[in-house]
Amino acid sequence: MRLVLGLAVALAALPLAAQADVPSTAGAADSQSAQAQAGQDQTQKSDAQVDAPDEKKGEWVLAPIPIRSPAIGAGLQFVVARLFYLDKHDKVSPPSGVGLGGVFTNNGSRALALGGKLYFKEDRYRLTAIYGAADVNADIYGVGREAGNRGIFVPLKTTGNAGMAEFLYRLRKSLYAGARGQYRNLTLSLNQEKLEDSDTSQPPDQIPIVIDELRTELFHQQTISVGPRVQWDSRDNVFYPKRGVLMDFGLDLFSKSLGNKSSYRYYKIALNKYVKLSEHQVLAFRGMGCAAAGDHVPIYDLCLFGTSNDLRGYSAGRYQDRRMFATQAEYRLMFPVQGFLGRFGVVAFAGFGGVGESFSDIGFHDLLPAGGGGLRFRLTKENAIHFRVDYGIGKVGQTLSIGVMEAF
Question: 136: helix, coil or strand?
Fold first, then answer.
């Protein structure tokens, strides 16, 4: 369920960051904060500096993106973004950007979001702000590993809006700290029309079981959170890193004193590592874990498997619980030729993860493996921003992911 409002919010952030962390609202919650070279020695030649233009020119990113999702149907996403430099004399900060994104599918889902990511004062400060609204119809399988294995879903309709603001300050070379605030205003309800026309292959006697599991979530509610954010960012390029590390830790605190109906916490930590094999080849590794704690955690703030590109190959909304981890490795190759063909590339990826009520509940036989491959096409001249198409195969199905920017 982190797939719903965050869907719109993430779209606006796509061209702005190598990894966007967005408000968690049934479809995205964390998707988000791109990092740049932090406090690097200006005299040191890195891949980012070699590729960077001599003149600080801005450029546009325009991408219509066809989508086909088991959760929300088939349709079209779009991204329109402008990359620019706040200070053309700043030799350290990567380009800032603002973008508009949207999605429209054949099951009636609609989402729109506007976002911006600003780097200034030689990357000493990073500011992110995103706002989105959505009306999304998605298939939800319930909570827990057994619910995902059972494969019985009910169609839910989520309507509302969400916003996120984040500020980071560089404490020392590569180390950033700051705070993030989120706001969501959501209404969840059963999609009665689709429920009556749902797949007849589903056992009718089991559908009420899923409805009972989700019944407490079917109402309007507003959630507000604040919390700390810490990042270690030694990547050599914000859009297409070839070497370095990105570590991102966030804690979102939802309390009754902020106006929430219940108090709970959402933790997430992720670590990306990039290894340059040659000028055109990169190995990328990612590991992440999340935990939701509290007496009552809304379904859209549980850890959701298959989003934020943590294990492509699983439909978002099928596996979700209070604990989750995922690991993956990816080989990236941009074709070493000149001219138009040099804008193309390929990737291969594989990994595994799991969900559970607690981490100790996730056994060897509960692991969810996935693997696949994809194509890349460079959209822009000055910055290595790629259009990607990935086909992933999981334990219980497959997915086709199309988007802008690398998966991680």
Answer: strand
8-state DSSP, 291: E
Contact 309, 401 (CB under 8 A): yes
Give the HSE-up count for residue 4: Cα atoms under 13 Å, Cβ half-sphere.
30
Quick one: tokens of 231? 């990042």
Question: The whole model's pTM is what?
Answer: 0.82
- Determine the Cα–Cα distance for residues 224 and 265; give it in Å rounded to an integer: 11
CATH number of the domain residue 12 falls in:
2.40.160.50
Cross-strand bridge partners of residue 127: 118, 167
Give the pLDDT score at 142: 79
Write down the residue that tokens 């370095």 correspond to.
244
Domain with 74 in it:
3-404
- Does residue 176 contact residue 169 with C-beta atoms inside 8 Å? yes
**Is 283 in contact with 272 (CB distance < 8 Å)?**
no
Report residue 403 as tokens: 């988007």
Low-confidence ranges of the chain (pLDDT < 50): 1-54
Q: Is the dihedral angle over the CA atoms 190, 194, 196, 202 positive or is it negative?
A: negative
186 Cβ contact partners less than 8 Å away, ≥ 6 residues apart:
4, 5, 25, 26, 158, 159, 160, 162, 220, 221, 222, 223, 300
Distances (CA, A) of 340 to 181, 377, 379: 43, 10, 11
What pLDDT does residue 26 have?
35
- Rounded CA-CA distance 157/57 in Å is 43
Q: Alpha carbon of 139 to those of 148, 157, 363: distances in Å?
A: 12, 9, 27
**Per the structure block, which two tokens stand in for 372?**
């696949």
User: What residue type is 100 in one-letter code?
Assistant: L
List, in sequence order, every beta strand (DSSP E) within 220-319.
220-233, 244-254, 264-278, 281-294, 303-304
Which of 262, 189, 195 is CA-nearest to residue 223? 262
Question: In 3-state terms, what secondary structure has residue 26?
Answer: strand
Contact yes or no for 101/12 (Cβ under 8 A):
yes
What is the domain count for the chain?
1
- Of 113, 55, 64, 46, the residue nearest 84 (C-alpha): 55
d(Cα 223, Cα 228) in Å, to the nearest integer? 17
How many alpha carbons fall within 13 Å on the CB side of residue 242?
A: 15
Name the DSSP class of 219: S
